[in-house]
Write a structure and sequence with these properties.
Helix content: 25-40%
Number of helices: 2
Strand content: 15-25%
Low-confidence stretches: none
Order of helices and strands: EEHEH
Largest sheet: 3 strands, mixed
Strand order of the largest sheet: 1-3-2
Mean pLDDT: 93
Shape: globular
CATH topology: Ribosomal Protein S5, domain 2
Structural class: alpha+beta
C-alpha cells in the first residue's frame, strides 16, 4: 500500500486506487469501504491536503486489522 500526498485545502480529501488485478468489483468495493471506515475512525484528523491511497495485489488477503496497520503506516510516511 502506498499513499501520495499533495498539500491542499482543509478538510483533507482521500481517494482510493484499487486496480482490477486486486480482485473483482465486489472485492475492490469491500476494500474501499474498509479503508474509508478506517479513515473515519482515526482519532486525529488528517492534515489538510489531497491523499491517494494505492492498493496492490495481495491487499484482498489482508484482515481488517492488517489493512488498518498498513494504511496508518503509509499515512504516517506522508503526513
Amino acid at each position: 500500500m502506498r499513499v501520495s500526498y499533495v498539500r491542499g485545502p482543509d478538510p483533507a480529501a482521500v481517494a482510493f486506487a484499487i486496480g482490477k488485478p486486486v480482485g473483482n468489483a465486489v472485492t475492490r468495493n469491500r476494500i474501499r469501504r474498509r479503508l474509508r471506515a478506517q479513515i473515519d475512525l482515526r482519532t486525529s484528523p488528517l492534515p489538510p491536503g489531497y491523499y491517494l491511497v494505492k492498493c496492490g495485489i495481495g491487499t484482498e488477503k489482508l484482515t481488517y486489522d492488517e489493512l488498518q496497520h498498513h494504511l496508518y503506516r503509509a499515512l504516517n510516511t506522508v503526513a
